Amino acid sequence: MERPVYLETKNLIVGYDGVPLISDVNIQLHAGEILTLIGPNGAGKSTILKSIVGYLESLGGAVFISGKPVKELSAHELSLELSVMLTERMRTELLTCADIVETGRYPYTGRLGILDDEDRQKVREAMDMVHVWDLRDRDFMQISDGQRQRILLARAIAQEPHIIMLDEPTNYLDIHYEIELLNVLRRLVRTRDVAVIMSLHELPLARKVSDYVMCIKGDGVVAAGPPADIFVPEVINELYDLEPGVFDPISGNIRLEEE
Amino acid sequence: MQKQSEIDDGFGRSVRYRRVTVVFSVLAVLLVVLSAVNLCVGSLNVPIEDVWAILFGQQTDSTNYQVIWSIRLPRLISAALLGGALALSGFLPQTFFNNPIAGPFILGISSGAKLVVALVMIVIVGGSGVMTSGMMVISAFVGSLIAMLFVLLVSRRINSMSMLIVAGVMIGYICSAATDFLITFASDANIVNLKNWSLGSFSGANWNDIGIMTVVVIAASAAVFCLSKPIGAFQLGEQYARSMGVNIRAFRIALILLSSLLAAMVTAFAGPISFVGIAVPHVIKRALGTSKPLVVIPGAFLGGAIFCLFCDLIARCVFAPTEVSISAVTAIFGAPIVISILLKREKARR
Fold first, then answer.
1. pLDDT at A171
2. Residue A119 covered by a domain
3. What's the CATH number where A10 sits?
4. Is the ipTM, as predicted for this complex, more than 0.95?
5. Cβ(A227)–Cβ(A207) under 8 Å?
6. Which is the most buried residue in A75, B160, B215, B316, by most CB within 10 A?
7. Which of A70, A87, A102, A143 to mutate to test the interface with B (most CBs of B within 10 A)?
8. Does any CB of chain A come closer than 8 Å to the CB of residue B271?
9. CB B76, CB B248: distance < 8 Å
10. Any chain A CB within 8 A of the CB of B100?
């Protein structure tokens, strides 16, 4: 059976203040797939993500979510389709980790946002999935950065969207939690048929976790395809301006000047 | 082990029913006690039994009856309502700017309201017209909106929270300076009016004013309470709020209008009053152990009412028969709390 297309962009042009930065972004993301954007710092990975959800006005082209133009979706309709995990640091006051995850239920609660048993069950499931139920009563400002990332992922899961968008989700994480986070994402796409779109810095992780990889550099998408086609020396060296032999994209080995 | 029902309540995990019940009970008791004291104590002490009798329509011919019904009761009601309005008019910009020391006074919103009221007072009253309460409210609202929009304009260009406060304080100074100019050129009769009002006091409200105050403050506060849900989402930042389905544009406009309206009501009827908007929400959040708007909003309203009743009692009794300006009293109790917020933040940063 053909999997539904959750996210599609057609010739999307993104940029700031009317100045195009990246043009011709064409994405087709099906249920149960993980798409990863890679590329040098400042290449515009976050700009693409922000333009897809409309935080930034796109300068051309179109975005479709579950077949509908994103511009025609209300904020509420969009929240049922897509949840986010952002890199911006958040400053909260006297809120527990569970409070943060509970905000994921926002689209489903009534006028005053009071949770019912089903909502609490979903919050519990999401927190269990990321293994943060133990943190439920801790103040969100008094846990480690890595723990905060996981809480925010649980929040995105509790929102039960079709698409989860993550901007540099492994920032602040050590290798243990990086791997765990990516395992959670894989489990998520497998068990719930969620589609994931994210940006990542760590190439070996991107290679392992992604179904598709899109390389962003300069003013456009320089390469796109399954990891096997992208993680070859030619593509990666070109993308990051590396001398041949300095970095092996498959093993992750690097060679320094003295060697 | 705590019982499941106690841990998993629907208000949000940090909201503990028992703690909330205790805090609201204490607030209710304080409100009743302070109201009683405010009615009894003054240059003329009225025994509590007499107050009771007077309120329920006996002893209609006594001096006490006059004192209670035309002076103390209106003053009590306006202090309580405007105190609640002040606390909320601080809580809203604090959420909006994600800044715990934002408030109508510090951001220059009260001073903006004061300037436009002074302007209208001098032009209208100077032209021998009469300044009605409705005109006071409208001009204060226009003034606070203009100041608020100015702060918003500045906040778009700067990202730093402390700079926002500095900009607000500067706006406040500009407006106060302009008000002083106006007073200098105003005629004697106007000055008396203006001076009394701009010092800040809960006195002088008549029953007609109380009517306007009750309707507007209660309606605006109820509207703020109805915004609990999006305010809670906004506590995680604008982008997260948007991703949860909050219509950011509509929400912003509602927030700006409501906080300006509440600040304007206070400025119109009592003059600019400092620090209540910062200190009260802060203390209430600590007491409740959460910043969930669903409980903080009603808590802050009650807390603001209590704080202003307390400060008004001090303002009129400590140096009786001379009355101290209410803003002086609120500053003495409120400013240390602001300093403690700043110190705590500095500590948290390390």
1. 82
2. no
3. 3.40.50.300
4. no
5. yes
6. B316
7. A102
8. no
9. no
10. yes
